[in-house]
Each structure stands twice: as C-alpha cells, then as structure tokens.
Design brief:
131 residues; 22% helix; alpha+beta
Length: 131
C-alpha cells in the first residue's frame, strides 16, 4: 500500500525518540511497551522494525500475526503507524535491523536470541504539523 510521509514527518522520524509498540494478546487485549524502532521505505511500503529478544511477550503476540501499531510522541507532535506484523529471525535481517538501530540510537548489546518485529504500514495518523 502506498503510504506518503511528508518532509516534516520524515524529519520528526529522524529525531531520536522512543516509541510505544502495541501488539494484541491472545484474548485481543492490547499489550503496550516502550521501544526503539527504525523505519525504511521498501518500494511503495513503509516498514518499521523493532529489535528485541525471542522470549518477550511482544514477540509471542506478533508471532500470531495480525495487526500492531507504533507511536512516536514528542509534546504536541505525534505519529502513529498501523499495519500487519510479523517476526523475522534470519541472520541477515537481524543484522540489518541491529545496524539500523545502532545508527538511530546506539549499538545494541550482543544477543544470540535477537529477533525483529516488522510492521508493514498501511495506515498513518499524525498531528497536523506533521502532515
């Protein structure tokens, strides 16, 4: 799906902020946790990635598939991305996501149980200043 990110929104995403990832528990209730994330465009798609460890609740929720959201907030500026979610654990994907995370935040600690939660965005909401 084609998702447009304005220049103002891309600039906001370039800032170093944490976000909230919301996944759905088996009973459908939301599970919200603070995360660092990275984003990239892939053709017409916007893809967000969160690195984490394989035994986390957010990974268990994401492995069921379905939908999730990521929200970045700074005062009156905010953006929420919604889309389909999946978990990737192949070495190349994990290494790429770790490198992107290191560029945005800081190098992550070495972990042998690292996986990537990937969100393919199909809906974006934001404060009016970022549209």
């Amino acid at each position: 799906m084609i998702v447009h990110l304005s220049d103002a929104l891309q600039s906001f995403l370039g800032e170093r902020h944490l976000a909230t990832l919301v996944t759905l528990r088996a009973d459908g209730s939301p599970h919200a946790v603070p995360v660092g994330f990275t984003w990239r465009t892939d053709g017409d798609d916007v893809v967000l990635r969160v690195i984490t460890v394989d035994d986390s609740v957010k990974v268990r929720n994401a492995r069921r598939g379905g939908r999730a959201s990521v929200m970045q907030l700074d005062g009156a500026r905010w953006v929420t991305f919604e889309g389909t979610v999946r978990v990737l654990d192949d070495h190349a994907t994990v290494a790429g996501a770790e490198a992107a995370y290191a560029a945005r935040y800081r190098p992550p600690k070495d972990r042998s149980d690292r996986v990537v939660i990937e969100l393919v965005v199909d809906h974006v909401m934001s404060s009016s200043s970022l549209r």
